[in-house]
Write a structure and sequence with these properties.
single chain; about 375 residues; Butyryl-Coa Dehydrogenase, subunit A, domain 1; Butyryl-CoA Dehydrogenase, subunit A, domain 2; 3 domains; 8-stranded mixed β-sheet; binds flavin-adenine dinucleotide
Length: about 375
Amino acid sequence: MSGRVTGTGEVFRAAVREWLSAAVAGLAEGALDDVTVRREWDRKLYDAGLAGLTWPVEFGGRGLSVLEEYVFHEEAARAGAPEGYGRIGRILAGPLLIKHGSPEQRQRYLQPILSGDEVWCQGFSEPGAGSDLANVGTRAERAGELYRISGQKIWTSFADHANRCLLLARTSARAPRHRNLGMFLLDMRQPGVDVRPITRITGDTTFSEVHFDGAVVHERDLVGGETGGWRMAMAVLSDERGPIEAITRYTAMSRAAAVLRECCASGSCDPELDEVCARVETVRWHSMRSLGNALAGIEDRAAGSVSKLMWSHTWQALTAYGLGLGCPAHELMWQRQYLESRAATIFSGSTQIQRNVIAERVLGLPR
Ligand SMILES: Cc1cc2nc3c(=O)[nH]c(=O)nc-3n(C[C@H](O)[C@H](O)[C@H](O)COP(=O)(O)OP(=O)(O)OC[C@H]3O[C@@H](n4cnc5c(N)ncnc54)[C@H](O)[C@@H]3O)c2cc1C
């Protein structure tokens, strides 16, 4: 396993497959959730030229299309590769900075995101602002060149290991509710930032409460201006429900579906197996449609909502069925996946919110 993976299309697929088979060999199955293993994986991808596949070359990416991104995820799922740890940086913060960041912000932040040296978290949700995100109460008070941050975020994934936070906070700009919000690039390793991990139903602590009291952000680390935070947040959420996320979820589910078939090899399964697997395939076709739109340059936010609804409910059906099989060889895996999947209809916008979006934007129903 050495050198950079090159090529496009099927050449790329063959090269990725070869690289993955060498890279994954030696990783113990149980180590795939380990933070150190996942961070090392980010670095390996970077060294192999497999980080930032769709990022422009000028920003350190490969400048490839979402098709190669899809191929990579398909092969990674097939090989049983770990999920990288720097996903908020790669999927959300990086693309935001590429589209809306200043030259200095791009220069400072993009490379450490790709190399995995800096982990990002997403500081949007608060106890009183989840679905109703515009209700954010964390304040960013201007004091000269600095903003002083006070308030609280919750459910912040990766916060306990994060170097930086994409922070949505209310500025002192005199403007209506959606206009006095700013998007800040906050240093998590400073006094005044208190991270309190929350234990999840799975037993891990991958998300946290984050309290801010006296933390500061320099004005050069504001993206989109003092009144542009809402627009930035919508851009982030659109990427969070975009084709790359749909593809990642589908490929992970297809791997789980393969395990399901293994569990059923003894012939003890009922027709529900086919139904569950057919639902996974439906997610695949929907992901393909999103992929086609992305390749044609069509942005369709409602498609992201449909996709989110489909994969989250399918994942829950898949894991419930897998758990119910009582397969001794994979019992622990199904237990974990079942518990993990419970959160899928909440994060990145709950099921009810996605249905509202579809009702309003696709069906044209009144609010
Ligand atoms: C595993 C996990 C990881 C997360 N990671 C992050 C992260 O990294 N960063 C971050 O900022 N946030 C994160 N979140 C938070 C997530 O975005 C919120 O939980 C989600 O937006 C819902 O907000 P809420 O929890 O405040 O619930 P609420 O908004 O209070 O909703 C409660 C219930 O009411 C329903 N509801 C609310 N409004 C409406 C409406 N208008 N119409 C119909 N039904 C409605 C919701 O669907 C839900 O069922 C994460 C959550 C989970 C579970």
